[in-house]
Specification:
- It is a single chain.
- By secondary structure, the chain is an alpha/beta fold.
- The chain has 18 helices and 18 strands.
- An 11-stranded mixed beta sheet has the order 1-9-18-17-16-15-14-13-10-11-12, sandwiched between helices. Strands 4-3-2-5-6-7-8 form a 7-stranded parallel beta sheet, with helices on both faces.
- Strand 5, helix 6 and strand 6 (156-160) form a beta-alpha-beta unit.
- The two termini are 21 Å apart.
Length: 514
């Protein structure tokens, strides 16, 4: 599912206009499509018949006038509140004039705020058409009062394109915005619809097709953003051969764990098993055998020599490289520990392994002192840093990373030739040399616990081992991992759920994709 920035959406509309779809026709199409969605959404709620459209003076207000006209034709008792007086846009003015002679009550808030508030208080549904994708800054005083009144009532709130008060591309607000129950995204999703916490103000999000042809979405304006839904995720999975044996289902080598971080190795290996790999070999320091061995039933166990710090020693390198020759994907880093030995092991894996490599946690930290070794890697590499790890990789502050997550991930992917998975709320996945950047929309705050990244890395390695391309495996793993977290939160709670709960949801969740 594509995500368009405000400039990309504007460019698509201009291309449509150049091809003969006039702007006023697009406005009519948008309003009609939204009104139909509203009608269908409330079809089973016949009591909701009083609709109030709150319109601004720009193009979004024009969409609102069309919606008011169509809802009136559908039998709704319809009123329009002008937040800032008469429309200033010429197309919006034309749509406003089409309301003349219809039983639609029009009230100018600036002239009669008491009457406007009475209509808002009596409404079954309120359609928010105040601001569109071009909004920046702070609502004026009158609009602020309207937003407060809309939020304070008990009406069902529907925002057109964007909940007013939120900025399209960043999702930021100046402290007040509409809190919608339903948002109708015009033509395509926008960043605000997926970026947390802004997305929480959007409620349910549905798209309205307004007749812009696909060739108008060339997305020459970089980056090209997209997210995933279940039908798109299902297409990423390879068909399962009913006669397949375990050797054809992929073999993951998981090089994870240490004496003090045994759980990371267990979650990573179990995640690889639960997400479909035919074989998983769990390599870990032999000093952690008593903790790790009893917890891993399905994987093959490969305990190897360790140092006095309880991590792998460099003496383990030959056996690790031998095991990697039998694998179809290698995961390294979860709970690995950071010292001279583990840095050497990460380097040797990069320089000699030819299958896809997923590097997580301390594997990433091991690269920080010599980041250029990524360019010498023999196989395709996927890195899964959280913001702190990314900050160390690029020598920037965490705050700087968080303020520009998309650009940070994209530039790193291109500069070092690796798939980059910048974790966090709305995990970002960027592929080297590819203009598309994936923004994840699944998952929840209950997943902000130690071990979640280890499980994600195991799922990602499993998907890579099964033959899914590294970029698709990364995006798919992030999405599935988030869905598992959402399922766990429903059964447990966001506070009480654990990564193990997410792991246990995987086999049930994956049944939806077979």
């Amino acid at each position: 599912m594509r995500i368009l920035t405000s400039e990309q959406m504007k460019a698509a509309e201009h291309r449509a206009n150049d091809k003969g779809m006039a702007f006023i026709r697009l406005m009519e199409n948008a309003g009609c499509a939204c009104a139909k969605i509203i009608r269908d959404r409330l079809r089973n709620e016949p009591g909701r018949k009083k609709a109030v459209v709150v319109s601004g003076s720009g193009k979004n207000g024009g969409d609102g006038y069309v919606i008011a006209r169509k809802l009136c034709e559908y039998g709704f008792e319809t009123a329009v509140i002008l937040a800032n007086g008469l429309p200033k846009d010429s197309d919006s003015s034309a749509m406003f004039r089409r309301l003349e002679g219809m039983p639609v009550v029009v009230t100018d808030y600036t002239e009669n705020p008491v009457k406007a508030f009475d209509y808002l208080g009596d409404a079954d549904i309120i359609i928010d058409a105040l601001f569109g994708t071009g909004f920046h800054g702070t609502p004026d005083t009158s609009t602020r009062h309207i937003i407060e009144a809309v939020n304070a009532g008990g009406s069902f709130i529907i925002s057109i394109d964007i909940p007013s008060g939120l900025e399209c591309d960043s999702g930021e607000s100046a402290g007040i915005c509409i809190r919608a129950d339903l948002t109708v995204a015009i033509s395509a999703l926008k960043p605000v619809h997926v970026l947390v916490p802004a997305a929480l103000n959007c409620g349910e999000v549905v798209e309205a097709d307004i007749g812009i042809s696909d060739d108008c979405y060339r997305l020459e304006e970089s980056p090209a953003l997209f997210t995933m839904n279940k039908s798109e995720a299902k297409r990423c999975f390879p068909a399962m051969n009913p006669a397949a044996h375990k050797g054809e289902r992929g073999h993951v080598l998981s090089i994870c764990g240490s004496r003090n971080m045994q759980g990371a190795a267990c979650l990573a290996a179990a995640g690889a098993v639960r997400s479909g790999a035919g074989l998983v070999t769990a390599a870990f320091p032999e000093c952690a055998y008593a903790a790790i061995g009893p917890k891993l039933i399905e994987p093959l166990l490969l305990p190897l020599s360790c140092n006095d710090q309880g991590t792998f020693s460099t003496a383990a390198v030959p056996k690790l490289l031998e095991a990697a020759e039998k694998a179809s994907a290698v995961l390294i880093g979860c709970g690995l520990g950071l010292n001279a030995d583990t840095k050497t092991i990460v380097r040797e894996i990069l320089l000699h392994v030819t299958v896809p490599i997923i590097i997580d946690a301390d594997g990433i930290n091991a690269l920080s002192a010599d980041i250029n070794m990524l360019r010498a890697a023999k196989g395709s590499v996927t890195l899964t840093p959280h913001p702190g790890e990314m900050a160390r990789l690029v020598n920037a502050s965490v705050n700087a990373i968080q303020k520009d997550r998309i650009r940070t991930a994209k530039e790193f992917a291109d500069n070092y030739g690796v798939v980059t998975v910048l974790k966090g709320a709305n995990t970002v996945v960027a592929r080297p040399g590819c203009p598309e950047v994936y923004i994840n929309s699944s998952g929840n705050s209950g997943m902000a616990k130690g071990g979640s990244g280890d499980l994600l890395a195991g799922i990602m390695a499993s998907f890579s081992a099964q033959g899914i391309s590294p970029g698709d495996a990364a995006g798919l793993a992030v999405y599935i991992h988030g869905l598992a977290g959402d399922a766990a939160a429903l059964k447990r709670s966001k506070r009480g759920m654990t990564p193990a709960d997410c792991l246990n949801e995987l086999p049930y969740l994956l049944s939806e994709f077979e």
